[in-house]
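Morning F.,

Quick status update on the modeling queue. The single chain you submitted on Monday has been processed. Sequence for confirmation:
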Amino acid sequence: MSIQELIRYCSTKSFPKDEIIVVEGEPGDEMYIILSGKVNVLLNSIDGLPIQVAQLDVGQFFGEMCLLDEGTRNATVQAVEDTTLLCIKKNNFEQVIRVQPNLVVRIINSLSTRLKKMNEEISRIQSGSAQLKCEQVVDSAARKKAHKGITGVLFPENHKSYELEASSTDEHYLFDKKVQCPVCDKNFSSKTLRSHRLNLNNVEADFRKRYEKIEPLWYMVWVCPQCFYADFYLEFGKLAESVEQKLRQRMKARKDTEPFNFSNPRHINEVFPAYYLLLDTFEACVSSPAKLAKTWLCLSWLYDDVEDQEMSDYASRQALDYYEKAYDKNVGASIAEEQRLVILLGELHLRHNSYDEARQFFLRGITRQGSDDLNQHARQRITDLKELIK
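Structure tokens below.
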């Protein structure tokens, strides 16, 4: 495949280090070939930060599915370093393959690999190891006994004010990104993680990732300071028109409210409202239980950090309830995703002393096609349970 010849027919785009190139779930009409640099391919995680599933280098490509169907992006792609891409659009794809037929062979090989994996998943699902049923659910039970806040009902009743501030060294792991709000169209700047600088320290039993010198949870949610639309930073702006209209109606009710701003360094009493505004957005969007569960799980971890055991237990209970809904409404998750989900459900049941349920989920987490590390984790937790209930 001659890149030089392709350049005659296609445009190029450059992205600085850490820039998000495409976002999982958004529509697209381009595929990309990497001319220089590297990119990470990320999938949304059930338990917090996105999971890196691949790193692509010069000559490799992504986004080809958007040329072949009307679907949306199936992963988020982020530049690891300054990266230049060759862009092949749907409207010139036929011309490109006439010039470079070898590109078709490479795409077919890529699709063949994906189809093989899909067939394995279908076989697993038909054998009864996963339930396929898609339904969007929003449960307002978690908002009972709440007091008034920025958006009307915001914090649970026993939420408090806390004393915790981010370290000034966080700046080393962050950069300022200009963002346009899809709801009010205002521009603002938001702190964004430099993912390549994060150094993983350890992973806890409930899959919380601990990093050296920074807590990424403090920066995972972007909030528009004018209209209070909030979302996880990798998903910010991916809204259907009907959802935008609902959020604009809410914005009118808040027109006299003071703008929401993070200080620098950031304070924990600004981080908590960001997550509760995120829940508020998800309520308006009629979001999936998995998104609500992930948000409550992050909140439980943040309450752990401020040593509020009562609120941590409350948030983790909400996470458990929503993750169980997500499991019951499973949309054909991959083996890896399902294995992580059932083990996480085991951990949450264990935290709330539901030992029988915890054991059942840990047993489901042991699977021949799953990760060896997760299989070992599940076996160890079953052993721990036996010791606990002696």
